[in-house]
Write a structure and sequence with these properties.
332 residues, mainly alpha, two-stranded antiparallel sheet, elongated
């Protein structure tokens, strides 16, 4: 059976290294505002460590998405050509991806690579219990294990869960209501930030023409946040802190990368569309965290001055004020 011990050792080593660093800097080991900040910061900087390591993969993900976006016109042609023949369509599309060296799965690669980290942290935090006998597993000392077991966020143990029982929290010296409140708020933030990270990317790159890619986008946008509403109850608070921090890091990183590598603008297919777009459509301004497009107000053309007919050659100038009130005098 494949062992995941190496993941548990790696996660434990990163956590303990950061905890030692914060302790050396002078961050209080004792609770401040009901929070053991040295352990909370260790989890946060575990995210920073992992994301720095995965940054080259994230850039490849963006480039792969750009390549897939550039292939959308060809994908649409294949869909029209092989309409009703799904098997041939899939074969042609795979050949197109192979020829153009585009990988549809590259967009999900960073998420897949983070799954072992998530599982390792989940297992590590799940073990944090003062009654656990295996305190020295994965490179921990008894003192470090006891310190982490009693670490709290606003008086809620980081190993506690929304679905914890009163007996489990009593063994950690915590109040079950406090744990449920802290865990519930964090689960809501986790769901919201997970949705926003997917929405930010889709708004920047647009919905895919390929049905499979569109299905993956819908799964990322709606499926995963909805699943967290259920699975969030079994996540330890420390794992939710990791997830929320990871989402916030992703929002900032995506914003920076998408500004540096802006999405491709697909060309207009018809001449009429170009003429209509040039006449009526205004350029969209992309900005903000979520990449909303704000339409620019249409610039009104200045009103044309009314044309005034000039006097005929040889005619005397007419005073408009007098001409409208009384007839001109006859020449004697």
């Amino acid at each position: 059976m494949f062992s995941l011990d190496w993941i548990y050792y790696a996660i434990s080593w990163i956590l303990l290294t950061w905890h030692s660093a914060w302790d050396a800097i002078g961050v209080s080991v004792d609770a401040v505002i009901g929070t053991n900040w040295a352990w909370i910061l260790s989890i946060i900087f575990l995210v920073v460590t992992v994301r720095v390591i995965l940054f080259p993969v994230f850039v490849k993900q963006i480039k792969s998405q750009r390549a897939m976006q550039a292939l959308q016109p060809k994908v649409k042609e294949l869909q029209e050509k092989h309409k009703g023949d799904r098997e041939t369509l899939q074969k042609e599309m795979m050949e197109l991806y192979r020829t153009e060296k585009a990988n549809p799965l590259m967009g999900c690669l960073p998420m897949f690579l983070q799954i072992p980290v998530f599982l390792g942290l989940f297992h590590t935090l799940k073990r944090l219990n003062p009654d656990n006998q295996g305190k020295t597993l994965y490179g921990w000392t008894v003192e470090q294990f006891n310190s982490a077991s009693n670490a709290k966020l606003f008086s809620a143990p980081i190993s506690g869960k929304f679905g914890s029982t009163a007996a489990e929290m009593a063994s950690l010296g915590a109040n079950l209501t406090t744990v449920k409140i802290v865990a519930g708020v964090l689960v809501c933030i986790m769901i919201a930030t997970t949705y926003l990270t997917s929405r930010q990317m889709i708004l920047k790159t647009g919905w895919a023409e390929d049905p499979q890619q569109r299905m993956v986008q819908r799964l990322m946008l709606y499926g995963i946040p909805f699943s967290l509403l259920i699975s969030g109850a079994i996540f330890p608070i420390g794992v939710i802190i990791y997830w929320v921090t990871n989402n916030l890091f992703t929002l900032g990183q995506q914003q920076w990368v998408l500004r540096k590598f802006p999405p491709l603008v697909p060309p207009k297919s018809s001449t009429a569309g170009k003429a209509t777009a040039g006449k009526n459509a205004q350029p969209a301004k992309t900005g903000g965290l979520l990449g909303r497009k704000t339409a620019q107000p249409a610039v009104k053309a200045p009103a044309a001055a009314p044309k005034v007919a000039g006097p005929k050659p040889g005619a005397k100038p007419v005073n408009p004020k007098k001409s409208g009130s009384r007839p001109a005098k006859r020449q004697g």
